[in-house]
TrEMBL record:
<dbReference type="Pfam" id="PF14534">
    <property type="entry name" value="DUF4440"/>
</dbReference>
<keyword id="KW-0732">Signal</keyword>
<feature type="domain" description="DUF4440">
    <location>
        <begin position="28"/>
        <end position="136"/>
    </location>
</feature>
<feature type="signal peptide">
    <location>
        <begin position="1"/>
        <end position="18"/>
    </location>
</feature>
<protein>
    <submittedName>
        <fullName>Nuclear transport factor 2 family protein</fullName>
    </submittedName>
</protein>
<dbReference type="InterPro" id="IPR032710">
    <property type="entry name" value="NTF2-like_dom_sf"/>
</dbReference>
<dbReference type="InterPro" id="IPR027843">
    <property type="entry name" value="DUF4440"/>
</dbReference>
Amino acid sequence: MKKLLIFFCLIATIKGFAQTETADKEAILSVLKTQEIAWTQNDLEGFMQGYWKSDSLKFYGSSGLTNGWQKTLDNYKKGYPTKEYTGTLKFTIDAITKIEDDSYYVMGQYHLTRKAGNANGVFLIIFKRIEGEWKIVADMSC
């Protein structure tokens, strides 16, 4: 009888972990969807709300490493000055993988359809739950 009780407790615990991970992934996907919408509306500040607003934010792209939320926003504004350049953003998510409690990495593709010429690439971003919200703390896009 004890073995059966332990077995059911183990199953309930595993199911609880799976539900938590599913909820985490759904919340991360929600952040990415909000970013797609903001970008497509040429709202770069809104897009940046998905990032950790910290000088410790890391962004690694074709121009090298950028440190900090404000500098990352400034670079986006310089590279995407008008709606012709932001266009319509769509993400394709290839993997969301738990690193440890409260952090995941996301691998995917971005697709920009725009008047200034379409652009496509890949990314690897790291999300961390900070003060109850999922934020991107590191981004490598090319």
